[in-house]
Amino acid sequence: DAVLSGEVVVVPDAAQDPRFPRFAEFEPSCGIRAGWSTPIFSPAGEILGTFAVYHDERCEPSSQDQQLLGIVARTVALAIEHTRAAETRARLSAIVESSDEAIFSTDLDGVITSWNAGAERLFGYTAHEAVGQPITLLRPEQSDGEPVILDRLHKGEAVDHDETVRRRKDRTLCD
Q1: pLDDT, tens digit, for every residue of 28-50?
Q2: What is the C-alpha to C-alpha distance for residues 39 and 8, in angstroms, rounded to an integer?
Q3: Distance CA 126, CA 148 (A)
Q4: Residue 19 has pLDDT above 80, yes or no
Q5: Over the chain, what HEC string results?
Q6: pTM score over 0.85
Q7: Which of 68, 152, 155, 168 is the most exposed place for a label (fewest CB within 10 A)?
C-alpha cells in the first residue's frame, strides 16, 4: 500500500498479483482489474493520503502517466496544506477575537494591522478607527521610544509590553 510504503504502488493485473489472493471473489462486482497509487506528501514529508487510478482491464502506467500522477499528488498536497493553513488561521483568529485581552498587531513600519474586541474595550478605539493608523496613536506625546522599539522589531528582537506606555482614546494612560 502506498501509505505504508511511502512509494508508488503499481498493480497492473490484480487477478495475477499475489498481494490480492481473494481478488477473484470481488472483481466482477467492482470492475477493477488494475491500478496504481501514489502517496501524497506534505512539505515536511508527512504522508497526507494517496491518489489512485483504477482501470477495468490490465494496465501499467506509462512514463507520462507517472509524471501526471506526480503532478497531481503535489497539487493535492498543496491544496491540503492550504486548507490546513486556512483552518489554523481561522482557529487563531477566533481565539484572538474571543479573548478578553487587548490583542493587536503592527507591521514593521509601525502601522496597526489588526485590532480585537479586547483592544477596543481597553483603548476605546474601534477596529475601524485603529487599523491602518500608526502605533503612535497609542503613545503619549512625550514618548520618544517609538523609533527605538521599531528598530528593535526590524532586527527581530522581542519587545515586552511592559516597556511601553499606551494612551487610550480618552487620553488617559495605561501600562
Answers
A1: 567 788 888 899 998 888 999 99
A2: 6
A3: 27
A4: no
A5: CHHHHCCCEEECCHHHCCCCCCHHHHHHHHCCCEEEEEEEECCCCCEEEEEEEEECCCCCCCHHHHHHHHHHHHHHHHHHHHHHHHHHHHHHHHHHHHCCCCCEEECCCCEEEEECHHHHHHHCCCHHHHCCCEHHHHCCCCCCCHHHHHHHHHCCCCCCHHHCCEECCCCCEEC
A6: no
A7: 155
Please name the amino acid found at residue 134: P
Between residues 115 and 139, the one the model is more confident about: 115
Is 80 exceeded by the pLDDT of residue 165? no
Cell numbers describing residue 90 = 481561522
CA atoms within 13 A on the CB side of 21: 0
Q: Which three cell numbers mark 15?
A: 487477478
